[in-house]
Amino acid sequence: MWIILGLLLTITQSFALSPGEKVPNTQIIRILSDNIIQLNRGFADGLTVKSHVMITHESEGFISRALCIKSTADTSYWRVYRIPNAEALSSDLNYTLVGIDYREIPHEVETKKAPVIPAAVKKKEDSKVNYDLPERVTEHDLIRATTPQRRKLFIEKALDKDQIKRDLSNYRLSFYASPFAKQSINEAESIRVGVRGENISRKYKLITQLEHQQSKIKDPVSNESVSTKNTQGRVEFVVKDLTKTISSLSLLQYNSMFFSKLGTPDAHWLVGPIGLTWKLYESDTWSNIDLSYIPLLDMRTTDMIDANQVVSQEKKSGLRHGFRLNMRAKINERVHLDNSLWVRPFHDLTTWELEGSNLLLNNDLKLSFSLTEKLFFDYNLIYMKDELWKKISGLKDTNIINSINVRYDLDL
Q1: What is the mean pLDDT of the chain?
Q2: Quick one: 342 and 252 in the same domain?
Q3: 80 lies in a domain?
Q4: Residue 131 within any structural domain of the chain
C-alpha cells in the first residue's frame, strides 16, 4: 500500500506546474472568505497542493499571486496574496496561471494555517477578495519585517536584482523591414530595416531598438537627386507598479541624419534618467492608455556649410520636457492598433526660456496584422515636426512617413 501511495505521489509531482509554465482559460468558480478562491482547474492540469502561481489577465495584466491549499482532479482551492487589483478577480473573466518557483513564497503565507474547506459551499457564503496591501505605507511599514532578509526599503524592493534577472531572461527580438516607405519631405522614397527587443516581464521591462533608413530625395536648391541616411536608436527601461497606477520610466534616444555628407543632425541625443508613467485606463479593448512625463537632456550637433563651402558644426544643448501619450487597442485576435504621441518643448538652460514652437513633436501610429504566431504585417504612419530642419537646413519643418513593414519575432 505504501508503495502504491508513493508511486501516486511521484506521478502527481511529475505533473506539477513548472516555473514559467502556463495554464490558460482558468475561471474562478467561487470566492470564499480569507482570500480563498476555487478554480476550475485541478491536479489533472498539474495544479497540486503547494503549487505557486501568478494569476494574470490579457487586459488587466498581473492580478495576484496564489498558493494552492487543496486540489482535486478538476478543481482546486488557492490562497491569493499580493493583490494590487482585487476588483479584477471575478467569475466573469478568464485567467492564465503562470507557474512561479516555490521558493518565492513569503514565509508568512507559506506557514499560515489553511482553513477547513467544506465539501459543499452554499452560494450565500461566497465572499469578496480584499486587497492585502496597505492603503497607506509609512516608513514604519517599510522597515517592519519578519526576518532580517525582508528588511528592505522601498528603493531596494523596486530594484530586485533576482527579479530583474528573471524578467530579462525572457527576451524577444523583432526583425522588421520596409520594402516601401515614402516621406513627404522632398518626396523621398526609402528602404528601412531594424531590430526591436522587448522582454515579457512581471515588473521590469527593457525595450531596445535600432533602425537604419536610406532614402533618395531632391535637393531643394539644385533639384538634383541626393541620398540620405538616417540611424535611430532607443533604450527604454520601465519599473512597473511602483503604486497601483504609477510606474517609472528611463529613456535614452539617439538620432543622426546625413544629407549627402552633411549631418542634420550629425548626432542628436536625448537622455532621460528618470520619469513617471500614469496608467489612465484599461479595458478588454483598450489594453493600455497611459501618460508619461520625463525631463530629457537634449544634445544636438549639426553640420553647417557657408557660402564658401566651408563646413562647420553647430552645437546646442538644453532641457526638454517630454510628454508621451501611449495607446494600445485590440481590434480582434489578429489585429492590434498602437499609437505613441511625443510632445517635447525645449527649455534653454542659458536663458531659461521655454520655446513653445520648438516641440520636437512625433506621432507614431501602427496597425499590426498577425499572419502567424511570429510573422506580422504592419502599416506605419509617422508624423514629425522639428523646427530646426527649417532653421538650419532649409528643409520643411514637418515630415510624414507612410510605410509597410514585414516583421518577424524571435524568442531568445
Answers
A1: 80
A2: yes
A3: yes
A4: no
Task: Check if the beta carbon of residue 74 is closer than 8 Å to that of residue 39.
Answer: no
- Region 123-130 average pLDDT: 56
- Ranges 110-114, 123-127, 128-132, 190-194: which has the least confidence: 123-127
Does residue 160 lie within any of the structural domains?
no
pLDDT 10s digits, 56-115: 888 778 888 899 988 888 899 999 988 877 778 888 788 999 888 877 787 777 777 767
Residue at 406 is within a domain? yes
- Is 41 in the same domain as 116? yes
| Closest C-alpha to 321, from 341, 292, 344, 351 | 344
- Respond yes or no on whether the N-terminal peptide bond of residue 265 is cis (omega within 30° of 0): yes
> Based on the domain organization, do 87 and 225 belong to the same domain?
no
pLDDT band at 306 (very low <50, low <70, confident <90, very high): confident
> Same domain for 120 and 177?
no
Amino acid sitting at position 264: T
Which one, of 95, 340, 67, lies nearest residue 209 by Cα? 340
**Which residue range is the domain that position 12 belongs to?**
2-125
Q: What is the pLDDT of residue 220?
A: 56
- CATH number for the domain spanning 19: value is 2.40.10.340
pLDDT of residue 246: 92
Q: Furthest-apart CA pair in the chain: how many Å?
A: 99
Q: Are residues 203 and 307 in the same domain?
A: yes
Q: How much of the chain, in percent, has pLDDT values that exceed 70? A: 80
What confidence tier does 289 reach under pLDDT thresholds 50, 70, 90? Answer: very high
Whether the pTM exceeds 0.90: the reply is no
